[in-house]
Write a structure and sequence with these properties.
By secondary structure, the chain is α+β, with helices and mostly antiparallel strands. It has helices at 2-16, 27-38, 56-61, 63-71, 93-104, 189-195, 408-426, 430-442, 446-459, 464-476, 480-493, 498-510, 514-527, 532-544, 548-561, 566-578, 582-595, 600-609; strands at residues 132-134, 140-142, 149-156, 163-171, 177-185, 202-203, 217-219, 234-236, 241-248, 255-257, 260-266, 275-280, 285-286, 293-300, 305-314, 318-326, 332-338, 349-357, 362-369, 386-387, 397-405. The strands form 6 sheets. The protein has a 5-stranded antiparallel beta sheet. A 4-stranded antiparallel beta sheet has the order 1-11-4-8, with no helix packed on it. A 4-stranded antiparallel beta sheet has the order 12-21-15-18. Strand 16 (318-326) and strand 17 form a beta hairpin. Helix 2 (27-38) packs across helix 5 (93-104), helix 8 (430-442) runs antiparallel to helix 9 and helix 9 (446-459) packs antiparallel against helix 10 (464-476).
C-alpha cells in the first residue's frame, strides 16, 4: 500500500512538472539575463512605466508583447542604428531570436533554482544623496486628457559661490513627464518669460537658456546618471537659474508634476570647457503628402576639435537622420545614423571614445522627413503643410555637437566660423552680426568687430544691445569717449541694459569720476547681485575714495562668488594692509601670488608688508 502511494505521488509530480521542449530556451537560463539587464532597469517600481518586469510571472504575462516590441526594435529604446555610444541599449539579433523562440516554445520557466537574482536598484537617487536638491516653486497640473504640452520651469538656485557640477539627476515626479531637458540662464530672461504667463513656467520649446559649458542635460526613462571626467565639470555661477523643459503627456487622470533636480559638486575645477557647436536648418516648408523631404547643413571647422557628444533633434515628421564627417583628404564616414527617428525617444549620446578631427574637417547632417499618411508619427490626419516652428507639431532640424578645442584661441576661431556659417544661411540677422562682433572683439580684431556692429545698426539703429556691443568694441580699441557715448545711447534706448551700465561705470571710474561710477555700479548690483566683476569694480571705486570698509565688503563678496579672482585677492590685501591688518593682508596677498606666481606687483606688496 505504501509503495502504491509513493508511486502515485511520483506520477503526479511528473505530470505537474513543466515540460520543456528539447533545446528550447528557458527563463531561468536564457531569458532572465536578457530581461534583467535590458528591461528591468526601466520596468520596475518607481519608474514611469505601465508595468514592471521583476520575475518570471511578470515576464510571462507580457511575453507576446515583449517579442513584438523587440522584433520591431522599439524596445529597449535606442534610436541609433550606427555609431559607438555609451549606454547602448540595443539587443543583439541572437537575443531577439532567443526571446521569440522562448515564446514559441510556450515560455518555459526551467529550473527556478537556477534563475539569477532579481536585480535591486537604489530606492532614491542613483549615485548618492545629492549635494543640493532643487525643486520648482509651483506644481504643474496635467489634465487627464488633451494634447501633449511643453512647459519650461524656471528654478532659482542658491548654491553659494561658484560651484563645479560633475553630475545631475533629474527625477520627474510623475508618469506624465515623457522627457525633460535642462539648461541654465544667466540673463534672467527666462524669469521675465515666466512672469508673462499665469501658469507655472512658460510654454513652448524655445528657451533663452543654454547648455552650461556645452553639457547636454536631460532625462528620459532609463537614463543613467553620468559623472563628468575630472576637469570637465560644468560651472554653476551664483545668480544663475535652472530652466527645466518638460514634455508632458496626459495619462488618463489628472497628474501633479513636481520634479526634483539633484546636483553633485566636485572640488576639481573646470579645466576643459565643452562648446555646443550647432548645425541647423530653419528654412523648412514640407508640403502635405511629401514622402522624402530632405534637409542638410554643414560646417568646416577651422581648428582641430574633439567631438564628445551629439544631440540630434527634429519633430514628428522626421524619419531618418545621418551625421557625417569629411576629412581634408576627402575621405568621409558616418558619425551616427538613425534609420527610424522617434521624437518621443530623443536623447543625447556620448561617444565611447571621443573623436579627434583635424582643422578643415567638415561636419554635416542629412535628415529625411515624411509628411504623408504612411508616417505613423504624423500628428496631422490628414497631412497638412508643415513649416519651421517651436511647437511640437511644427518642424525643426538641428544637430548639436559637444566639442572641445586645444585652447581658448581655437575656441574663439570656431565660434567665428560657426556664426559666419549661420549668417550665410540667415543673411542680415542683427543678433548674428552682434555675435560675430563679440567673437571678433574677443580675438582682438576690433576694427572688424566695429564693422560687424555697424551692419546691425544700419538696419536697426535703435537696437540697444547693438549700441552696448559697439561700446565694448570701442572700449577695446581704447576709444573711451566713443565707448561712453555708445553705452549712454544703449541705456537711453533700454534702461535695463545693465552691461552698458557696468561698463559705463568702469569708464567713469577710470577717468576719476568715482561717485557717479559708484551710483552706476550700485544700480547694476540691484539687478545682478551675484556678478563677481561688478562687486570687484564697486570695491575698487570705494578703495579709490579711501572707504576701506566698503571696499573690503565688496572684495570679499567678489571672492565668495569666485575664489579664483586674482584682482580681488590682490586688492583685498592692499586694503587690509592700509588698514593695518598685516596678518590678514599677508594671507590675501599669498592667495593672489598662488594664482599668479611671480607677479611683480604682488611680490612688491608682500615685501612692503615686511618692512
Amino acid at each position: 500500500m505504501g509503495r502504491c502511494i509513493l508511486l502515485m505521488i511520483c506520477l503526479l509530480a511528473a505530470a505537474c512538472a513543466e515540460s520543456v521542449p528539447p533545446g528550447a530556451p528557458t527563463f531561468a537560463t536564457d531569458i532572465a539575463p536578457i530581461v534583467y539587464r535590458s528591461c528591468t532597469p526601466c520596468h520596475r517600481p518607481g519608474e514611469p512605466v505601465p508595468f514592471v518586469l521583476l520575475g518570471y510571472d511578470d515576464v510571462r504575462k507580457k511575453a507576446d508583447q515583449i517579442v513584438d516590441v523587440t522584433q520591431q526594435r522599439v524596445m529597449p529604446p535606442w534610436l541609433m542604428t550606427h555609431g559607438d555610444f555609451e549606454g547602448d541599449r540595443r539587443l543583439a539579433a541572437a537575443e531577439i531570436a532567443t526571446l521569440r523562440h522562448w515564446v514559441e516554445a510556450g515560455a518555459p520557466r526551467g529550473d527556478a533554482a537556477a534563475e539569477p537574482k532579481v536585480p535591486t536598484f537604489p530606492t532614491g537617487w542613483q549615485l548618492r544623496e545629492p549635494d543640493l536638491i532643487v525643486t520648482p516653486n509651483e506644481t504643474v497640473l496635467v489634465p487627464a486628457s488633451g494634447p501633449n504640452v511643453f512647459r519650461n520651469l524656471v528654478i532659482p538656485v542658491d548654491a553659494g559661490p561658484l560651484r563645479y557640477v560633475e553630475a545631475v539627476e533629474i527625477r520627474p515626479g510623475s508618469t506624465a513627464v515623457h522627457h525633460a531637458v535642462m539648461a541654465v540662464d544667466a540673463t534672467r530672461q527666462s524669469r521675465q518669460q515666466d512672469a508673462l504667463d499665469a501658469e507655472p513656467g512658460f510654454p513652448g520649446m524655445a528657451m533663452k537658456a543654454a547648455p552650461p559649458d556645452g553639457h547636454f542635460l536631460g532625462w528620459t526613462p532609463g537614463k543613467r546618471v553620468r559623472v563628468s571626467p575630472p576637469g570637465m565639470a560644468w560651472r554653476l555661477w551664483p545668480g544663475q537659474d535652472l530652466v527645466l523643459q518638460l514634455h508632458l503627456v496626459p495619462t488618463g487622470k489628472q497628474e501633479r508634476v513636481t520634479p526634483r533636480i539633484g546636483l553633485y559638486f566636485t572640488d576639481v575645477k573646470t579645466k576643459v570647457e565643452m562648446f555646443p557647436l550647432v548645425l541647423f536648418c530653419d528654412r523648412i516648408d514640407i508640403a502635405a503628402g511629401a514622402t522624402d523631404y530632405v534637409l542638410r547643413d554643414q560646417l568646416t571647422v577651422p581648428v582641430p576639435v574633439t567631438v564628445h557628444t551629439i544631440y540630434p533633434h527634429a519633430h514628428y515628421l522626421c524619419r531618418r537622420m545621418r551625421g557625417t564627417v569629411t576629412l581634408p583628404d576627402g575621405t568621409s564616414r558616418d558619425l551616427f545614423r538613425i534609420d527610424a527617428w522617434d521624437f518621443d525617444w530623443q536623447d543625447d549620446y556620448h561617444f565611447t571614445a571621443p573623436i579627434v578631427l583635424p582643422a578643415g574637417a567638415q561636419l554635416a547632417f542629412e535628415y529625411g522627413f515624411d509628411n504623408s499618411e504612411n508616417n505613423p508619427q504624423n500628428p496631422h490626419k490628414p497631412p497638412v503643410r508643415v513649416t519651421f516652428g517651436q511647437q511640437s507639431e511644427d518642424e525643426m532640424a538641428t544637430l548639436t555637437f559637444g566639442v572641445t578645442t586645444r585652447d581658448l584661441g581655437d575656441r574663439r576661431r570656431l565660434v567665428e566660423a560657426s556664426v559666419r556659417r549661420d549668417l550665410e544661411k540667415n543673411g542680415w540677422d542683427p543678433n548674428l552680426w552682434l555675435q560675430l562682433a563679440a567673437a571678433l572683439r574677443e580675438q582682438g580684431r576690433n576694427g572688424e568687430a566695429v564693422a560687424a556692429v555697424r551692419e546691425a545698426l544700419a538696419r536697426q539703429p535703435d537696437n540697444a544691445a547693438a549700441q552696448c556691443e559697439l561700446g565694448l568694441c570701442l572700449e577695446a580699441r581704447a576709444d573711451l569717449e566713443g565707448a561712453e557715448r555708445a553705452f549712454r545711447d544703449a541705456l537711453r534706448l533700454d534702461d535695463d541694459q545693465d552691461l552698458a551700465r557696468m561698463q559705463l561705470g568702469a569708464i567713469l571710474a577710470r577717468s576719476g569720476r568715482t561717485e557717479p561710477a559708484i551710483e552706476l555700479f550700485e544700480r547694476a548690483l540691484a539687478a545682478h547681485p551675484n556678478l563677481a566683476a561688478l562687486h570687484n569694480n564697486l570695491a575698487t571705486a570705494y578703495f579709490v575714495l579711501d572707504r576701506l570698509d566698503r571696499a573690503e565688503v565688496h572684495y570679499r563678496r567678489t571672492l565668495a562668488i569666485d575664489d579664483q579672482y586674482f584682482a580681488a585677492w590682490f586688492n583685498l590685501g592692499r586694503v587690509l594692509a592700509q588698514a593695518g591688518r598685516k596678518g590678514e593682508a599677508r594671507t590675501a596677498l599669498q592667495r593672489a601670488a598662488a594664482l599668479r606666481p611671480g607677479e611683480p606687483a604682488v611680490v612688491q606688496a608682500l615685501a612692503e608688508l615686511e618692512r
